[in-house]
């Protein structure tokens, strides 16, 4: 309520604190304030009508993003809590907002660096963007962002953005409820298919088609398993469930962006994808295709993402081969984690001798084999041991080609001859004993296995 002071000299009323003798200016300021408030109320009413229309028309996140983009006259995005873009609308001078510096090279919003709420133009690096959380009850569902071409977004804009986030929460809650039911049926069917319990191949392919999947084509089985053991974690059961759901959603989103007919489902601690490939594709070609999906799911590792190891099977051309391919993918995951540690990607056909070494049930036997074969080179007590092991590995890889080994290691020929002599004094005459050479080659492979 505006307080009015005593009458001025000409009988006009003045605002408190206003200089006497300026009744016209006072009335103009009051009229401007009233008009400003009227415009804000009108804008808020229009935004309310737009958002209600989105809800009543059954609109999704794309429609929510489009409504927000229209409100700010720029662009808008809806992302998961870790920054994966779920919907986007509008542009900034013809450029997608995902090209801005607040998104990483994989297109993920760097949520850990972006504050939520209004940005003070005096202190914010870029007040033309704002983010608010999408929350339903105690659940954090995602982030809604608005991008203005200029000027900076005001507190009123952020308030309207929060109202839009409420609508986005309704949409996401509905979508998640539907997706939970659908994913349960899909996961049960895929588990049966991978176990060989899906029945006749023709019937299984028909049932998969009713779920929106095309599995009657050449494909590989991709298994992605989180590196963290949920059975031994200190996290709460609710946190583990939330992280696994996020992991499944990340894979589902990455796969569907490529092909909506690809089968993908999540189990207890893994995600399985039946990825279509050219039946004549070699392992390197297949790994490049899978690696692109892995890159999208991983992003830059921010936003609370967990590391995972992925394994790829050989190509299968019949549904009857799925159980065998699933076992190959799981083997690639297990061996890949032993050889490379976490966050690896391995193809079953490229496991080589590591596949056999991984079958040894007691890793203590493998460690003892390394110690007995490499002697003092098995440890890193001496600074030069790692360098000597590398020299030995390259020598064996080049079939004792001294000139090629010197070239790869950037050594002078005489320097390499000196090292070979030193290695033979430590390990024995491996240059003339093929059995010793084989033993040393195996010992070096085992030494590199990080999962022992």
UniProtKB/TrEMBL annotation:
<dbReference type="InterPro" id="IPR042070">
    <property type="entry name" value="PucR_C-HTH_sf"/>
</dbReference>
<feature type="region of interest" description="Disordered">
    <location>
        <begin position="1"/>
        <end position="24"/>
    </location>
</feature>
<dbReference type="Pfam" id="PF13556">
    <property type="entry name" value="HTH_30"/>
</dbReference>
<feature type="domain" description="PucR C-terminal helix-turn-helix">
    <location>
        <begin position="388"/>
        <end position="446"/>
    </location>
</feature>
<dbReference type="InterPro" id="IPR025736">
    <property type="entry name" value="PucR_C-HTH_dom"/>
</dbReference>
<dbReference type="Pfam" id="PF17853">
    <property type="entry name" value="GGDEF_2"/>
</dbReference>
<dbReference type="InterPro" id="IPR009057">
    <property type="entry name" value="Homeodomain-like_sf"/>
</dbReference>
<comment type="similarity">
    <text>Belongs to the CdaR family.</text>
</comment>
<dbReference type="InterPro" id="IPR051448">
    <property type="entry name" value="CdaR-like_regulators"/>
</dbReference>
<dbReference type="InterPro" id="IPR041522">
    <property type="entry name" value="CdaR_GGDEF"/>
</dbReference>
<feature type="domain" description="CdaR GGDEF-like">
    <location>
        <begin position="196"/>
        <end position="335"/>
    </location>
</feature>
<protein>
    <submittedName>
        <fullName>Helix-turn-helix domain-containing protein</fullName>
    </submittedName>
</protein>
């Amino acid at each position: 309520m505006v307080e009015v002071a005593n009458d001025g000299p000409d009988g006009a009323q003045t605002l408190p604190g206003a200089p006497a003798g300026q009744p016209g200016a006072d009335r103009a300021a009051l009229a401007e304030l009233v008009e400003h408030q009227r415009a804000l109320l009108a804008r808020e009413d229009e935004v309310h009508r737009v958002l209600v229309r989105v809800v009543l028309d059954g609109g999704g996140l794309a429609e929510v993003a489009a409504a927000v983009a229209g409100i700010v006259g720029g662009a808008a995005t809806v992302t998961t809590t870790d920054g994966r873009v779920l919907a986007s609308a509008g542009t900034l001078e013809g450029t997608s907002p995902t090209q801005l510096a607040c998104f990483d090279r994989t297109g993920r919003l760097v949520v850990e660096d972006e504050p939520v709420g209004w940005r003070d133009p005096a202190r914010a690096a870029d007040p033309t963007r704002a983010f608010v959380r999408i929350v339903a009850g105690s659940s954090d569902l995602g982030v809604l962002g608005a991008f203005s071409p200029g000027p900076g977004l005001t507190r009123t804009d952020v308030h309207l953005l929060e109202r839009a986030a409420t609508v986005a929460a309704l949409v996401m809650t509905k979508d998640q409820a539907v997706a939970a039911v659908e994913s349960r049926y899909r996961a049960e069917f895929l588990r049966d298919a991978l176990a060989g319990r899906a029945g006749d191949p023709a019937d299984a392919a028909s049932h998969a088609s009713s779920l929106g999947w095309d599995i009657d084509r050449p494909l590989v089985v991709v298994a992605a398993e989180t590196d963290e053991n949920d059975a031994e974690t200190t996290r709460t059961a609710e946190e583990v469930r939330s992280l696994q759901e996020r992991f499944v959603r990340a894979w589902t989103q990455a796969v569907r962006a490529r092909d909506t007919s690809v089968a993908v489902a999540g189990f207890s601690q893994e995600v399985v994808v039946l990825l279509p490939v050219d039946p004549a594709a070699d392992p390197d070609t297949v790994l490049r295709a899978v690696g692109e999906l892995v890159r999208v799911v991983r992003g830059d590792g921010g936003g609370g993402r967990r590391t995972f190891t992925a394994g790829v099977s050989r190509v299968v051309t019949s549904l009857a081969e799925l159980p065998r391919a699933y076992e190959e993918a799981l083997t690639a995951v297990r061996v890949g984690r032993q050889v490379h540690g976490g966050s690896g990607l391995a193809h079953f056909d490229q496991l080589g001798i590591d596949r056999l070494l991984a079958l040894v049930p007691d890793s203590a036997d493998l460690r003892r084999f390394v110690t007995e074969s490499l002697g003092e080179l098995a440890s890193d007590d001496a600074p030069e041991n790692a360098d000597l092991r590398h020299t030995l590995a390259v020598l064996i890889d080049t079939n004792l080609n001294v000139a090629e080994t010197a070239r790869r290691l950037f050594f002078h020929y005489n320097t390499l001859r000196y090292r070979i002599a030193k290695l033979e004094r430590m390990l024995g005459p491996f240059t003339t004993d093929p059995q010793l050479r084989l033993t040393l080659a195996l010992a070096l492979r085992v030494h590199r296995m990080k999962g022992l």
